[in-house]
Amino acid sequence: MKYSFLLLLVPFVSFSQIKTKDEEIKKYVSEVSSDSLKSYIGKLVGFHTRHTLSSMDDKNQGIGAARNWVLGKFKDYAKNSGGRMEVYLQQEDIQPDGKRVDKVTILGNPIAFLKGTDPNDKRIFLISAHLDSRVTDVMNRTSFAPGANDDGSGVSAVIESARILSRSSFPASVIFVTFSGEEQSLLGSKLLADKAKKENLQIEAVLNNDMIGNAEEGETGKINNRTLRVFSEGMPYVDLDKKAMNIRNLGLENDGDSRQLARYIKEIAEEYVKGLEVKLIYRNDRFLRGGDHSSFVTQGFPSVRLTEYYENYDRQHQDIRTEHNKQYGDLPQYIDYNYLKRNVAANIAVLASLAKAPSKPEQVEVKVKELTNSTVLQWERPKSGSPVGYYVLVRETDSSLWQKKLFTKELTIKIPLSKDNYIFAVQAVNQSGNLSVPVIPAIAR
């Protein structure tokens, strides 16, 4: 995403002093392999079904075998991490609920935790997908449910990200997780989100990938293999009633943490992944539907859903069959692996950028003691990382995306633009050009 830059009467430093693309991240993006992604999805389809209520003990079929295989892949990649990647299965017994769980079952989330190199940096960035699959009847745990796209494509993104990033040395930590129980009402993601909230983990971004490999619209046959949708919540879910008055007074209905994360994803992904457009969708998820990121949204963690531009409903939640010469079902031959490769590369670029960047500026505020047509912002250094400066982002109130950027090394700035007409934010940047997520200023009293 390209910005125009303000040339204002403020302390200004040349952008040439800062790289615009990180060479390490470019390398990671180049390593994404269509062949690897195809092999992962082929293996996942081979488990016959990955239904959450399917067999736990069969070594070749069912959710238990699928979990063990993902854990095995994580353990293989952990060997590249110098001992910093911990692999484990988060488990909990789930009782029948009278809805989508009809027996006591062991819910399990395969997790790889890549610990950051800076002991003072408590930030965690999370990439996720759901491992389970289904057919038309959500309770059918025995029929062939390949789940190649829903959500083998997302799982392949998580595994490929773990493969490539396991060799990294980021100051912040990264979690790679494939959830069970998504089709049974987001059970696995709720398990982890609740744990993260209880333990006060500093999860600053959740990238949930759910169906990122289909490029064809079923009804019309249209193809879009260049656009990735990102769904994001505009306002905070937690304590909205307490925050609503301030949001309304400042006109920040479009500036919740998840929405800022979505804008960040668009900027970074389009910078590093050639030919990809990120389309921001301003709702938490598809119309009247949900995904695993919602479990984290409800706990107050910035979380988004990444998904393909078109959903083909002939291949989603369908029994495998042929009717009137039309094939139904989520089969691997319908994955567009070049499209999937771009979408996986977008995830890796964003994760690496976040984990390498300084943390967000602290105490970002706008001064309001004197009402003028200029705006004075102030902030404090991030808690972690080594910023070489800060970008002040600017957009008009009716613009959905940031329009302008201004660089400064100072901790305060006066901009000859009215607070009435513009929204501002501040982000930290390091020498390699890695950016923190922008912070909207609070009111300085």
Word description of this protein:
It is a single chain. This protein is of the alpha/beta class and 445 residues long. It contains 9 helices and 18 strands. The protein has helices at residues 23-30, 34-45, 63-78, 152-165, 187-198, 240-250, 257-272, 293-297, 337-356; strands at 4-5, 85-94, 105-114, 123-130, 173-179, 202-209, 227-232, 277-281, 303-308, 321-323, 326-328, 362-367, 375-380, 389-396, 404-408, 412-415, 422-429, 442-444. The strands form 4 sheets. The protein has an 8-stranded mixed sheet, with helices on both faces. Strands 1-15-14-17 form a 4-stranded mixed sheet, with no helix packed on it. Helix 3 (63-78) packs parallel to helix 4 (152-165), helix 4 crosses helix 9 (337-356) and helix 7 packs across helix 9. It is globular. The chain starts with a strand and ends with a strand. Mean pLDDT is 95; it is low at 7-17.
Count of separate DSSP helical elements = 9
Overall geometry comes to: globular
Helix share of residues? 25-40%
Major sheet attributes: 8 strands, mixed
H-E order: EHHHEEEHEHEEHHEHEEEHEEEEEEE
Beta percentage is: 15-25%
| Alpha-carbon Rg, integer | 22 Å
Distance linking N and C termini: 35 Å
- What's the mean pLDDT score? 95
Which residue ranges are poorly predicted, with pLDDT under 50 across at least 5 consecutive positions?
7-17
